[in-house]
Amino acid sequence: MATGDTEREAYVPEDQGGTAAPRTLAEALRARGDEGLAALLRARPDLLVPVPNDLTQLATRAGTRASVVRALERLDRFTLQTAEALAVAPDPAPYAVLRALMAGEGGDPQVEAALPGAVAALREQALVWGGDDRLRLVRTARELLAPSPQHPSPTGLGPTVAEATAGMSPGRVQEILQAVGLPTTHDPVSAVAALTSLFTDRARMDALLDQAPTEALGVLDRLVWGPPYGEVTANPTPPVRWLRDRGLLLPTTARTVALPREVALHLRGGRAHRTAEPVPPAVGAAREYRPQVVDSTAAGQAYTALATAEELLKKWDEGGPAVLRAGGLSVRDLKRTATQLDVTEQAAAFWLELLYAAGLLASDGEADERYAPTPAYDEWLDLPAARRWARLATAWLTQTRTPGLVGGQDAKGRTLSALGPDLDRGAAPEVRRRVLDLLAALPPGAAPEVDAVLARLRWERPLRGAGNAGTDLRARLATWTLEEAELLGVTGRGALSAHGRALLGYGGVDAGHECVGASGVDAGHEGVGAPHGGAPHGGAPHGGAHEGAPHEDAAVALLAPLLPEPVDHVLLQADLTAVAPGPLRRPLADALAVLADVESKGGATVYRFTPGSVRRALDAGQSAAGLHAFLAAHSRTPVPQPLAYLIDDVARRHGHLRVGAASSYVRCDDDAVLGEILADKRSAPLGLRRLAPTVLAAQADPAALLAGLRSMGFAPAAESAEGDVLITRADARRTPPRTPPAPVPDGPPVPDATLLGAAVRAIRAGDLAATVTRKEPETPAPGGGSLPRTSAAETLATVQAAALTNSAVWIGYVNADGAASQRVIAPVRVEGGYVTAYDHTADEVRTYALHRITGVAELAEE
């Protein structure tokens, strides 16, 4: 078990600025300043949940497996390679040994320049502690990264000579010494030391390998970069026998041999990795466009995005598809939605999830649960177009629901449905933000290659990108981000738009360009491309998408001039169509959507008038005269005669028949019309019979009766119990007020400065209480307890003296719940049976009842 205080070594005093070398991780943390502790808690926020009582508990928590795994997953490739090198280095390892493992015997200027930053990053995250002459990797990290037959090392190195010969007979070790020309020894320990010394001596190793057969060198070449294990038969070939006799291959089992780590390092030239990667892969401009072209393209797509969102929600105004029992939208309903929007099913899932994340779409929660727009949708419609886009883009930046997963399967083999459960991926906002940051680091109008972006992300999080592009979720999230950004209009032609930059919090189009091509490990830590130093891997600059509202106002100001202005007129044509030469203003668009059907969309929208659409307007309470006046007021061309005739003809017949509830009935002043209905064979399913010359009764319900009569070519109107015509409205269905789904975080959130400061003070105070040296009370605690025991008179006298001298004391205290604790307090006032004191443990002023203080002790002199 890796804990702070269990990671001990034999203490050897060393001169490090007048202080001894830390013996434990807890001591190393205790030597840090407040800024160093805050940096640790900021880099590893899981250590704050809950706030540790003291530094020993903090060190223990920092060494747990779950926390170390999370910390390793957030290292970039070069920093992780540094940790892997320390895992195969001696423990502790001098900095010079680490440098040789990373840069090789010949040295590498780039590696040597980046290595101090990598070590500093590991120290900051408490994965490495100790001075440069005694670097120690946290034991849990060493266990995770060190080689073993079951878990080969990422470096491809095998066991050391000492580890491989641990179970070997002493006689066999002596035989190996004789085979390599070394004198035998009296004990196996010195024999292993002599063999290790040979394998780490370059000159003697070169001489030994010069004697090796060519085939033996070929065997070594196959094992040198890993895996270092190979199977052998009971009667191995001469090259393998030659290597095994001289210890260049050592047996690990009866049929397995391993290449000793010292031999592999010699053959590698001292390098732990085949290729060290101190510099992140560059994300350059693969295509370049004029910034104005990019902005115009993105603005056009933003307008299309708004139109698509409005069309989808308008189609669900009267209630959308039903909610599946397990939650989400059925495959059939998703296909139907995609057909209605004229997009792919994957794009339809994206729009559905985006509107759900923005709080514009939700389930109504009724018995027959269906999806419908929320009341927030009506408020959203009243906003200017650019502001509506900014709200959608903001929701997209922060949502953890991942529409790209729709259609796939979960761990239990169940199909993932749109708007259903199990679509949240906590890493999505961080990856989305990081991809956009990389785009922002390029010059305006520049678009990168997708493979370059994916390579950069794999360098920044290699442990989270261990698979290929088809299986690695992080790579798929990045690919989906680029596709969704184009759909939404954040990018145009693959390049980040000006309003996209503003939404991300970049002050100007040139922000971040100075970071392009930055090298060294700090490029990965500080987020290359972020302005003013940026934020670590996805942290939004200036309190961006993850910490607060993005810069919507700046994005709106840049996008608004690029969107087409709404128009207040249409062009009526003789073929019963109307052409809208641009986006229509809201009242006109709503009224025309009821009166006509959309026939085609694009730069100009074409509406078609049909008997059914005119009847829909009449059902909504319009009159023929009102429709004529509406068209005359909003058309730049005269109202065509065919359209006027259509409106009058439908209005003449509208409401001639009346349908109500008996089960249902039909009444009409013209009994000949009712006779015509009864004579029509198509009326048979309705179960009609004549009750009076002007009334027919029906077995069908009113809605079915209305639909049946309309299918027969009549234009009935529904009426109330009072005989009034019922007016139907298309936009009457809304869900109750709904809160947008909260993003599911990928681990604890990064604490802000206030929380960090309070946590550091609390940990320091708890550490002071736990480590302070105190005088032993004259009366020992009964039963050997650790709480001090003093009489009431002694307690009162001691705290009064401390209040007079402004000194601190150590007390044992039992609260009203019976919980005992130890505290370091500085008494300020003692009166009325209570002592008011500054509590160093809680870092605040508190009042304690004297009768609950079990004992008091003065602090020892330093």
UniProtKB/TrEMBL annotation:
Pfam families: Helicase_C_3 (PF13625), WYL (PF13280). Residues 1-11 have a biased composition (Basic and acidic residues). The keyword DNA-binding applies. Keywords: DNA-binding. Residues 526-542 have a biased composition (Gly residues). Residues 570-692 form the Helicase XPB/Ssl2 N-terminal domain. InterPro entries: WYL_dom, XPB/Ssl2_N. One of its GO terms (molecular function) is DNA binding. Residues 794-856 form the WYL domain. Residues 1-20, 524-548 are annotated as: Disordered. It comes from the Bacteria. This is DNA-binding protein. It comes from Streptomyces thermolilacinus SPC6.
